[in-house]
Structures are given as structure tokens and as C-alpha cells.
Write a structure and sequence with these properties.
The complex is a heterodimer. Chain A has strands at about 10-15, 20-25, 30-40, 45-50, 55-60, 60-65, 70-75, 85-95, 100-105, 110-114. In chain A, the strands form two sheets. In chain A, strands 1, 3, 4, 8, 9 and 10 form a six-stranded mixed beta sheet that branches. Chain A has a four-stranded antiparallel beta sheet with strand order 2-7-6-5, with no helix packed on it. Chain A is mainly β. Chain A contains no helices and ten strands. In chain A, a hairpin with a 3-residue loop joins β5 (about 55-60) and β6. Chain A has a single domain, classed as Sandwich (Immunoglobulin-like), CATH 2.60.40.10. By secondary structure, chain B is mainly β. Chain B has one domain: Immunoglobulin-like, CATH 2.60.40. Chain B is built from no helices and eleven strands. Chain B has strands spanning about 5, 10-15, 20-25, 30-40, 40-50, 55, 65-70, 75-80, 85-95, 105, 110-115. In chain B, strands 2, 4, 5, 6, 9, 10 and 11 form a seven-stranded mixed beta sheet that branches. In chain B, strands 1-3-8-7 form a four-stranded antiparallel beta sheet, with no helix packed on it. In chain B, β7 and β8 form a beta hairpin. The chains are: A mainly beta, B mainly beta. The interface of A and B includes residues 36, 44, 91 and 106 of A.
Chain lengths: ~110, ~120
Amino acid sequence: GESVGLHLPTLSVQEGDNSIINCAYSNSASDYFIWYKQESGKGPQFIIDIRSNMDKRQGQRVTVLLNKTVKHLSLQIAATQPGDSAVYFCAENRNNNAGNMLTFGGGTRLMVKP
Amino acid sequence: DAGITQSPRHKVTETGTPVTLRCHQTENHRYMYWYRQDPGHGLRLIHYSYGVKDTDKGEVSDGYSVSRSKTEDFLLTLESATSSQTSVYFCAISEGGPAMNTEAFFGQGTRLTVV
């Protein structure tokens, strides 16, 4: 297994610097957003989530910002480490009668230079 | 991987043959999903299940069918595989329903190649 591979936007940062990964979502009715990290050969892993009634949420070394006005989501990683190198996906949750419907963005590859 | 097992992990099959991928969970989560991942498209939902025998289509369901006869197993079947179905397939599970926004947990993926 692997991530999308080709034609991904790539962000290259120096170890120790902060990283900001951006995502534009499409549906103004989406009420829940998640950032996933995908390392080569693995499935996506949950990093952090945010509900639409919030603008900001912080985790360990990560912060997610939500701007509903322009339908924009960002993931900030503090003091980026080589282990942060991966593809990052944002996902928006559109509830329907049956349950959660996660729709994913195309992904951004983060490369951390030692 | 949150108690999710996909099998097989890799498969090569010929065009026109049927293929079934299995997802098994040990978390007793109600919701299960099948996604495919292709370059340039990220992850796209194929089908999902909101309970035993309850399934619905996602955005790329053509050419696929699913079945869920028990909580822990969700099967994805390609009735007649085509080269366009060469992809990496991910199963996911989540606990929450419409009123509960909860994250989905993913399996390790199945790489399917149709030749």
C-alpha cells in the first residue's frame, strides 16, 4: 500500500522548522474535519479533528485552524521532525441519514530535511 | 491499526475475473467503509455499511458490490475486474453515526493489480 504518489503538492521543510499544510474544502454544510497522516505502505492515521463550531484546536505539536468563511483548513506542525515526513490529507465529514461520509482532499507530501 | 485486518494484502488478477476483498474488524464498530486510492485522486469512497445487511453507495460504486452479513466483516467484490480497478483499496471503520462526528480508522490496504 502507499499514498497517492505522483503529482502531489510537496512541502519541503528543514528539521526543527514549523510546517503549515493547507486544504480547501468544498461543502459549506460540512461540520467536521479531520487531518490524516499517511506513511508509505500504511493506511491513513488520524492526527487531529475539529468541529465546525470551533476555529482552532491544538494537539501535541499540531494545531488545526478552520476558516469557514473561505472554506479553508490548515494543519500546523511545530518543530517538524523527520518522522513527520508523510502525505497529509484533510477530510470533511458530510452527514447523511446513514452516517458519516468522509470526503478526502488530494493530499500534500511533507518532506523534512535533516 | 485499530483492530482492522484486510485480506489479501496484495493480489494480481486477470481482466474479467471476480475478486473479493475482505475487511475484518475486532472493534465492534457499526460503520465500515471501502475506499480506493489512486494517484491524483486521493481516497474515494466506494461503498459503506451502517449495520449488518445495511449498505449504500459511495461516489465511485460502479463495478463494485459489497456485503455485510455480520458486524465484523465487510466484503468488497469486483464481479468482473477491469484494468481501471487497479488501485490500492482501504477499509475503514468508525463508531459514530449521524449525530456523532467521529474519526474513521483505516486498515493497511490491499494492492490490487488487474492485468
